[in-house]
Amino acid sequence: MTDSYAVDVEGVSKSFGAFKALNGVNLRVRQGEIYGLLGPNGAGKTTLIRLICGLLAAHAGTVTVLGQRMPNVGVLRHIGYMTQQAALYPALSVEENVSFFAAINGADEGVKDALELVELYDRRASVVATLSGGLRQRCSLACALVHRPELLLLDEPTVGIDPQLRVQFWESFRRMAANGTTIIVSSHVMDEADRCQRLGLIQYGRLLAEGSPADIRAQGGSQNLEEAFLALAGRKES
Amino acid sequence: MSGHRVRAITRRLLQGFRRDRRTLALLFVAPIVILGLLGYLMRGSTSSPSVGIANEDSGPLGVMVADALRHSSRITTTDISAADGDAKLKDGSLVAYIVLPSDFSRQAQSGNVAPEVHLEGSQPGVDAPVLQALQQAMITLASQVAGRNVNFQPQIKYLYGGKSYDTLDYFGAAFVGLVVFFLVFVITIVSFLNERSQGTLERLMASPLRRGEIVLGYMLGFTVIALVQAAEVLIFSLAVLKIQNQGSVLLIFGMEALMAIAAVNLGIFLSMFARSEFQAVQFIPLVVVPQMLLSGIIFPVSTEPKALQYLSDVLPLTYAVNGMRDIMVKGADLTWSSLQLDAGVVAGFCIVLIAAGTATLRRRLG
Known about the structure:
The complex is a heterodimer of chains A (238) and B (366).
Chain A: E1 5-16, E2 19-30, E3 34-38, H1 45-52, E4 60-65, E5 68-69, E6 79-82, H2 94-104, H3 111-117, H4 133-145, E7 151-155, H5 163-178, E8 182-187, H6 190-193, E9 198-203, E10 206-211, H7 213-220, H8 225-237
Parallel strand pairs in A: 3-8, 3-9, 6-7, 7-8
Antiparallel strand pairs in A: 1-2, 1-4, 4-5, 9-10
Chain B: H1 3-19, H2 21-44, E1 50-55, H3 61-70, E2 76-79, H4 85-90, E3 96-100, H5 104-110, E4 112-113, E5 116-119, H6 127-144, E6 151-152, E7 155-158, H7 167-197, H8 200-205, H9 211-240, H10 249-271, H11 277-294, H12 306-314, H13 316-328, H14 337-365
Parallel strand pairs in B: 1-2, 1-3, 4-6, 5-7
Antiparallel strand pairs in B: 3-5
């Protein structure tokens, strides 16, 4: 049954010098699922995402994505990765940026759809350096999904985005998931967590708890997800 | 004006330096390295040029002049036969040779001597000591030919260059390539670093792009810019500055292109060792200045102290500069073995750097 998991992380540890960024993390994400990685700054969310797309190699454990052991260059064309900062070329226009990422993923035909999805088609000629933070974030998202990846990794995609746009972002995430795209999204904003089908709580490089938002509430003994999270975090620490 | 606020700025700057040990080290180490190198080069250089003497005089006076030349402190001499002279100038083992003709003694007795002086001619500044040494020897000669005024009219022949050849022709040939090399190097190192700091490199790494594709793509992109620049520099040098050129313009352009490719790859490779644009800029004095001093642009490699010659021999720029001069000053074409070597070394250097750039790209993100 392993092939029904889009992402299978088994017993993964990763250290940077003496600092243990991840410590024996197990995590499975089904195809078409929206999985939320929750945790405070520095908990290991970004490290886990980098391991999943093969930017880093684990010291222990295995990462399997779409049936392939990572790191694996062949799988990368099926992964879309939106980095934490809007990593774009400031001297290029919105369309030139999206076209570039389309070209390196061999998906030149997807540019218009991607721009329309993030509602930047009318601003496609704007140079990125002149855009506001929120607009850059949208452009960055377009670059990550222009090649219609099977797995979308989003590292805090809604940071600096107004609430209205955030709702739109999540609507499009849901639509993509319904079409079979697997989405892993990291966040430390709790109201986003509620929109995920399943959540994983990460702290100090460990997966503290996992389950649907309702499960997390039950485990943490609180109707408020934030309180539940803090309760779970505090329990493991002591 | 608030002293407190001014102090805050000053303190902030110094605090930054305290964390950036490398910048600090460079600020204090680089000037010593550069000045030390310059001092060693200027003081330690053997400035006496190698001159061949071919004494064909059947009379007694030729021996005497040759002896006087041998004892001159201005030049270092070896005895050769006149037939080998040009070959020795071409392979660089001599910068000049003097032929005392078979009727030299007879000429002297009749009051008019015309020794042949063959100058290699491409290096400015070495002709003067040769002629001075000969002049000195002639004074010795005149004192031996009693009661006669000896008229001294050397027959000067240039292998390369010639009378109109000046310092700009010598330096210009090297600088045509250098300008392109250094500017392309700086642009590449900074823009590759941008790629890293703005996070797009991480994105590229998470795409199906191979590392070699990134390096090659970069190389081609900057080579396009570099070639346009190279063409501009070349046209300006030849048409406006009127730098002498004996060789094929296409060949010069080819050599410039090789240097540009080397510069792009050097930039990519070194950008792996810098964490910020600030640190990248520091590579300029560290990489550029020693190469300027040691590649034979200003001081010919053959006159450098022996220890520095070994260093010069491993710098790719030495070969590039040599190749440019071979083409422009000496009119070399690709049948010359020296130009084949120069172009080969620069091309080989490009290949090594492409491999090194690709390898370091892997290591940093692994």
